[in-house]
Design goal:
551 residues, mainly alpha, Arc Repressor Mutant, subunit A, two-stranded parallel sheet, two-stranded antiparallel ribbon, 55% helix, 5% strand, globular
Length: 551
Amino acid sequence: MKAVTGWVKPPTAIGGLDHLGTQGPCLLIYSQLLPGITNVTDRARYYSLYPWLVWSFEQRFPDADAEQFIEFYRRADCLFSLISERHSRVTDHDAERHGAAMVGRNQLLPALDRLQQGDMLQLTHYTDKDSERRYFKNRLGGLGQYYAGALAQLELMDPSSRPWIKFTIERGQPLAEAVGSAVPGDRFWAVVQADQVSLNDLDALSSFCACSIGHATAENEALTDIFFDRHGVYGPMGVQRRRTLSLVLHLADALHRVCKVDLTEQRFRAAVYAGTLPTGAPWVVPESLHATRDAWALYERNDLLSVAMQSAFAICLGAMQPLGTVADVDRSTVETFALSLAKAEGVGQACASLGAKTLGELVSALRNQGPPLSAWEDANHEFQLIDSLASGVNSGADLAGLVQLLLTAIAMLEVRRLTGSKPYGVLPIGEEELADSPINLASFQARCVKWIDLPLRAVAEDLFAWCLHTHLRVALRKLRQANQSTFRFRPTERGLQVVDFIPPPAQTTPRFRQAVQVLRDIGALTRDATVLQRPTMPSATGLALSEAHRG
């Protein structure tokens, strides 16, 4: 009899993400501020096309089984992307309007190239699970991998239904019918059944392009109702999504009018955090949007803290390597390593260059002489300091320069703390929500109370130990919950040893790009063709939405 000793099988080693758990609160915040749009729901058209696809399939193939649905669904998913890319090529070549972020686009672009050169295009060459040209691994393609959760949250589709994901009668079906009234559904399904696509087919089906909802159609109105919750059916979730989208529209308008610059994620982060535009002019938002901007400012503060702590962790791992940045560092335990690193010459140089004995002295000096919160483009502003710190870690900068940036950034974050305010303001984030994120705004605030009268070397020592202990705690939790090893270092009989690579510091992605693309798709944002750089600005529709639905 064959015996399998699975209990001694080593866990699967993976690279892992968020090695300190510092990104967890950021994810909690932006999921509360922008529900129904995620970091992978890139195009608004899929919110209506997927309910239509299932609704129209069931009308035409009432006796189909699950396997036939999967096969026809995958062909249709490819066809959507091919139509959008073809429409771009025969019109304005503007991928942002047409084919950008359509499912399987990178794999299907060569297919369209070959079709335009006269080759045949057979959809099953790209949908078959064993094909080298397979457009997507997930059986339900973009719907299963990206959109199912968001569509379920918005009550447009029900992923739990069988034998396949279904549209909801109350909200999904009216949206599907709105699409059906404006597209040649019979021609679309004829192409799917035939399993062959011609350029004439793609041109005849151009109304399926992602750009088509930007016009005054029933589908456009229905999608705008959903994203801005114009009928108040989604409760607090709908209100918060509407306020965030209105905030984005307001910033786009301010950037265009005042600065003539484009709306980017970096400018959004800076504007919500500092309350100013790139020119230094204040960004004055309506009173109804104050709380939303303040909440996004807390998101950015947590993200800055996260990047700073990831950088500190990377500094530790760099020094921990056998040929690391610090000679003769003691790797016996976390405590001896942190003490030894804090005593290193580079750390001493950094502390001396700051001209303060304690963290409290450094905070006081920066409060009096540092840049104001509004000056986010200043090199000594925490917004720029932490960016420079992460860049320095990635480029292998010297220890003294990195630690100087790190301690200054930590002090600047303490300078910005509002006395008496809760770390997460009015956001519903408490101890339970922070249980898996030991380093967060609340614990950082408590740590600063401990650090405030300590010498800077002692602050550095405790900071290094905090990061290392936190990583072990987070990695052990992941090992227990998923049997996956994400350790970047391990305590061994020969001391602390680095495992594999040093993870680079990284920001979280706050769904901003997806929100902007949704606003473009529904016609609320456009580009100013009268300016060379074509900056983003609200359309007349966008201005009306911002005015009517910002509250």
